[in-house]
Amino acid sequence: MIQLLDRTFEPFIGTNELDNRLVGLAEELKNFYQHKQVKVLVVLNGAAVFAVDLLRLLPVNFQMDFVKVKSYENMDSTGEVKAVFGMNHAIEGEEVLLLEDIVDTGLTIDRLKEDLQRLNPSRMEVCSLLFKPEAFKGKEIPKFIGFSIPNKFVVGYGLDYNEYGRNLKEIYQLKEL
Fold first, then answer.
1. pLDDT tens-digit profile of 70-102?
2. Of 13, 37, 39, 40, which residue is the least packed, with the fewest Cβ within 10 Å?
């Protein structure tokens, strides 16, 4: 158990499970992008930890860039997506892979993809560490998924509760009362 601010969290996905799944995801991505140049866009802040660990395992030519999106306050989605782009590389005509920490409603990633489509990539796919099928209302399920999880609030391994908990090596879920 851990305490972050006013909430208690319990272990959910351990480091061994994370490590094993990253190896599997890297293999899926390697097979999909074999012999292709890829522009990897890491969705900040949450996907940074996931991206670093995954990309170290990926023997594919890629350029990495970052986009920042915010749609959460406390433990709730605001329904309003604020995207701040800091990309240094053009994506027109390129294979683009978005790395996301979690896709729950899917509205944030839908909005981000719509914005990025205006830059005319040849193809854009999403790889998300976590996916919540019960909460999903988006247009398209991520092509690459680390773990499908129940609709519970989680922290750790880049995911946060009010900016706390990102540094945890495992993923924790909110403890039920």
1. 655 555 555 555 555 566 778 999 999 999 999
2. 37
pTM of the shown model:
0.91
pLDDT score at 80: 58
46, 160 Cβ separation under 8 angstroms: yes
On the question of a cis peptide bond just before residue 20, with omega within 30 degrees of 0, the verdict is no
Cα 45 to Cα 21: distance, rounded to the nearest angstrom: 21
Average pLDDT of span 126-154: 97
Q: Which percentage of the chain shows pLDDT scores above 90? A: 72
pLDDT beyond 90 at 151: yes
Helix, strand, or coil here: 125? Answer: strand
How is the chain split among helix, strand and coil, in percent rounded to 5?
Answer: 20, 40, 40
Contact between residue 172 and residue 5 where contact means Cβ atoms under 8 Å apart = no
Question: What CA–CA distance (Å, rounded) separates 155 from 160?
Answer: 5
CATH of region 15-149:
3.40.50.2020
Domain ranges (residues) in the chain: 15-149
Q: Which of 19, 53, 101, 104 is catalytic?
A: 104
Catalytic residue status for 104: yes
Query: What crossing angle do the helices spanning 48-56 and 15-32 adopt, rounded to 10°?
Result: 60
